[in-house]
Design goal:
This protein is an alpha/beta fold. It folds into 4 domains: 223 residues, Rossmann fold, CATH 3.40.50.1100; 91 residues, 3-Layer(aba) Sandwich (Rossmann fold), CATH 3.40.50; 76 residues, Biosynthetic Threonine Deaminase, Domain 3 (Biosynthetic Threonine Deaminase, domain 3); 80 residues, Alpha-Beta Plaits (2-Layer Sandwich). 42% of the residues lie in helices and 21% in strands. α5 runs parallel beside α6 and α12 packs across α14. The chain is globular. The protein starts with a helix and ends with a helix.
């Protein structure tokens, strides 16, 4: 253990987080333990006063500032849990706090920050906009910037979670699964745990579309992701922090990547165990733990995960519920082509047998074939889905598995039957729009009157971004101009022209 790491241990032991934070329980997940044949424990950081672990690092940083810096006040940029941690810490210490938040921040989070007496400045549409503006304000006003993860005292504050885990579970412990955004949490836990118990694995968990630590470890240096996923907004970071990366490359054993459905399933699992609804980032660790157990087929081990936060917007619950069944391999989605003739529905249902149908979408297309969008409840995981697909194909049905088709799950299942024979030169794209007033108007204004919109489907999932499926009529000779328009637009987009769900149900 080098001198720098020893310094982290000293700072963790001296951290003053308990002036404001709770020593949260380490609860055994009885149902999950039985289900996965391992002893599974959940560290309940959702029980903190701000419903997130972020309070620990924020307070430890602020309380260690020189008195003259404290008197001038602090500033932070955040759209969520770090903002609340800084605001509550400042209230506890009786100092002024300014929090710069994107204009897209849900009102529930803005209200929570203001409740602690902080001044909220709404600026820009994303975290990077807010962070840049916060830097300008701190220079103008002489404030102290409280970084959410790339700071020694912040890392030490988060490291107290590792200290508590070893105090609460002093017996055999094989692995701790830690959600990763900027890396402050896993850096603090890894520094402490590896110092005292180097045999314990420290495993990071990231969404597959926001895997900044995983990418950095593979490259051997910090990298900046071109874009990050929006679902687990609490860990949507494009580049891991410098200090966290220095620690992680030494002490983190591996990083597990999970998809949206696995995160939703883990949210449901934690609810079933505790009756608490975590935010997506809060269930990330459990999603990784489950994937690890399935992959390694380990049994009889003691495994810890961290419920890192529970600041969930209520209007996201429908989306979580919809995706959790697929994440638990309890629902399959497929497209099935059947003959367009009397009795074909009955024959198809007979071929399915006694499978429980969760969704059945159809609209007449032509007099030869019918395309069905089918959802089926599974009780034996995806192995049963695979057997059923083989059975249907043996009976002559054309079957396409849509279970992992994001466009089908987000849009097509809600737009089946939208066929028309009068659309020519349609190009299909999926966009992520920032949820702010005028976002759609901005898009349409940039597009002008050059191209016609032939299809439009929008869904809001209670996050800072909405998901939009758009069909646009673009002539071949206009393709270059249209591509220039997309590149200049600044929104994340995907070309879905070759998506089989589009060809079967909309094209």
């Amino acid at each position: 253990m080098d001198i720098e790491s020893s310094t982290y241990i000293k700072k963790i032991l001296q951290a003053r987080v308990y002036d404001v934070a709770e020593k949260t329980p380490l609860d055994k997940a009885t149902n999950l333990s039985q289900r996965f044949n391992n002893e599974i424990w959940i560290k309940r950081e959702d029980l903190q006063p701000v419903f997130s672990f972020k309070l620990r690092g924020a307070y430890n940083k602020i309380v260690n500032l020189p008195e003259e810096d404290l008197n001038r006040g602090v500033i932070a940029a955040s759209a969520g849990n770090h903002a609340q941690g800084v605001a509550l810490s400042a209230e506890k210490l009786g100092i002024p706090a300014t929090i710069v938040m994107p204009k897209t921040t849900p009102e529930i989070k803005v209200t929570a920050v203001r409740r602690y007496g902080a001044e909220v400045v709404l600026h820009g549409t994303a975290y990077d906009d807010a962070s840049h503006h916060a830097q300008l304000l701190l220079e103008q006003q002489g404030l102290s910037y409280i970084h959410p993860y790339d700071d020694v005292d912040v890392i030490a504050g988060q490291g107290t979670i590792g200290m508590e885990i070893l105090q609460q579970h002093n017996g055999p412990l094989e692995a701790i699964f830690v959600p990763v955004g900027g890396g402050g949490l896993i850096a603090g836990i890894a520094a402490y745990v590896k110092y005292l118990r180097p045999e314990i694995k420290v495993i990071g968990v990231e969404p597959v579309d926001s895997a900044c630590l995983h990418a950095a470890l593979q490259a051997g240096e910090r990298v900046t992701l071109d874009q990050v996923g929006i679902f687990a907004d609490g860990v949507a970071v494009r580049q891991v922090g410098k200090l966290p990366f220095d620690i992680a490359r030494q002490y983190v054993d591996e990083v597990v990547l999970v998809n949206t459905e696995e995160i939703c399933a883990a949210i449901k699992d934690i609810f079933d165990e505790t009756r608490i609804i975590t935010e997506p980032a809060g269930a990330l660790g459990l999603a990784g733990l489950k994937q690890y157990v399935t992959r390694t087929q380990c049994s009889g081990q003691h495994l810890v995960t961290i419920a890192s936060g529970a600041n969930m917007n209520f209007d996201r619950l429908g989306y979580v519920s919809e995706r959790s069944e697929i994440g638990e391999q309890r629902e399959a989605l497929m497209a099935v082509t059947i003959p367009e003739r009397p009795g074909s529905f009955h024959e198809f249902c007979h071929a399915i047998g006694h499978h429980f149908i969760t969704e059945f979408n159809y609209r007449y297309a032509d007099d030869k074939e019918a395309h069905l969008f089918v959802g089926l409840r599974l009780n034996e995981g995806f192995a049963k889905k695979d057997r059923l697909m083989i059975k249907l194909r043996d009976k002559g049905y054309a079957v396409i598995d849509l279970t992992d088709n994001d466009m089908a799950k987000t849009h097509i299942r809600h737009t089946v039957g939208g066929r028309t024979q009068h659309v020519r030169h349609e190009r299909l794209y999926r966009f992520e729009f920032p949820e702010r007033p005028g976002a759609l108007l901005h898009f349409l204004s940039r597009m002008g009157q050059r191209w016609n919109i032939s299809l439009f489907h929008y869904r809001n999932h209670g996050s800072a971004y909405g998901r939009v499926l758009i069909g646009i009529q673009v002539l071949d000779e206009q393709l270059k101009a249209f591509q220039d328009f997309l590149d200049d637009l600044g929104y994340a987009y995907w070309n879905e022209a070759d998506n089989p769900a589009y060809r079967l149900f909309l094209n």
